User: Fold these one by one.
Assistant:
Number 1:
Amino acid sequence: MLGILDTLYKLINNDSCKKDFVIHGGVGVLVRILQDGFTENANELQITVEILWKLTFGDVVCKEMVKKKMVNADCVQVLLRLRSSQMRSLRVAGTALLWRSGIVDLNRTMFESRSFDFTKDNYVYISCQSDMVDRLSEIRDALLSVGYKICESQSELDGNKIPTMMRNVWKSVVVVLCVSSKYKDDVICQTEAIYAQELRKTIGALIMEEDCRLDGWFGKLLRQRKVYNVYTDDLMKKNIPEIIDEFGVQSGLIHYV
């Protein structure tokens, strides 16, 4: 079962596969796996929820799922239970699917938070895998030196912290996507990128691996956006001035006369 789900997870990276999967009743099969207790294996549960979560990243597919209420009441109860799971990955997946399928309004939760700072005060949101953090010290220092403030994801979200991620993306003037092969396959990173796109944020991409291909959902998202190769120290140093300048112009923080 796990092998079948894993293959399906890879197939739905393609938008046309997402649409075909939904049209031919695939969502109903996954929902039944969840609500009927077909599996108690934590890995199978997680990948089932993550497949449903990934399906919501396609605009047409997401609207179809919401319109037809494909994630039904029984499935919602399962997802609500997952939000209190001892496994962080299940909490994240359950919470994100409830949000992306329109069942739980995390936007309202975000704006009702008393701790939320509504001022968009030159924040840059850095979306990256935790293993890339050390390589970003130079660009982080450069952003701080010109007056930006930094919010970082590191792809370590807890399900209860997804509203925090949403707040940080919302208040940022620029969202930086630190792209690697692992990043492209990470559903949390994908959630951050899609949410930034939905908010029409200034998005810049730093390519962290030489052989990283900008295809699939990521290639579509970055169409007509600036992409910078920073996969070597020399490229990082060379491109930092242009990156800082471009972010400032695109976000309206720098104006040329």
Number 2:
Amino acid sequence: MDRQNVLFFIFRLHGGGAERVVSNLSMDLEQDYTIRIAVFDKIDKVYPHKGELIRINVPFSGDPATNNKAVRAIRLWLLVRRLRKIKRIHKIDTTVSFGEQANIINVLSGGRTVLSVRTLLSTEMRTAPNMRVLRNFVKTLYTRGDHIIVPSRVAGQDLSGNFSVPPEKIKVIYNYLDPQRIDRFAVESLDDQFLKQLFGLPVLLNVGRITAAKGQWLLLEMMPAIKERYPDFRLVIIGEAEKGAMLKDELLARAAELGLKVYDQAASHPRSLDNDIFLLGFQPNPYKFMRHSQVLLFPSVFEGFPNTLLEAMQSGLPVISADCQSGPREIMAPDSDLAKSTPKAEYTPYGVLCPTLPTAEMRDGIDPGIIREWLTALFTVLDDAALRQSLIENGYRRVKDFDRETILRSWRESLSLP
């Protein structure tokens, strides 16, 4: 029997959790299918992958904020035409798209489609104005997909309850890890002398693109109290800033107001350990940094299913996460009420859940009570060696629940022709 042709379609192949999922799937399914990956970003950086990489070039910016309605319509039309052509030339049996732009283009270009929704759409549309234009597209077009894959139960409930997607079309497939791969990359040495010196100090780590959804400004508000109690600690953020966004500039301005010194690798700042916060940008191997850190701080305002939490657990790093929708509670307190959002630090066997920022707008400020709960959780984890070790051991065991083969079997069922 001929192998089926599968196309993964995504904006880019670097920088985030959805991109990591595509990377992993391409490598783990290439023995079963003929894999191709189509991207429509102009950046050359890519995660490791298997299969032919196809770049779709269009003459307009990928940032909706910089395009007027006419340009957005022309760009959409061009992408639909070019994806349809790729499907025809390569005789694609199933196209799996990741992210709302890609999902809409996938459906409009025809053929058998599997749509992967990676976030809690209602929350994202409420907090990101440029996403609201997609609401009617989602309600109208997603019902035409053959399958819709979501990474958590809460994300599935959101699609059916708020976007009228039939529940029978929705399938929950959790993200999986390749523990051996993470372990292999985690032991890579820090060859750069500056990074070796930096991670010789106690480091609080955040991994995620600098975007409104990730809530990193909370960490800035925590730093003065952290410095007072633990003068040697540094905050390291791994992740690039969103193109065209002002958030990074706002973070740098707020850090200056708080008297915090920032090293920004992207700005080619002079390398010095005499800084409080280190912005290291995109790193293809975050695991070696996790291995040399003390705690992962994850203050996201919303998520779909945060791979980073599981990756940190596999790397032996205690996790303190916002109790945002959706994913962190499903990972860290799976037997609890998944609709709950804790107002206080909640200690689970696998990490600590903390209050979520109420909005994804930095300028809205932060309730001092939220900062206090996060600091209490952090100081407790750092000061209680027994608790810290328990979180490390339980987290390592929790990762095994996201068994690679079980989850790949679910993907194969969705990819295979009926």
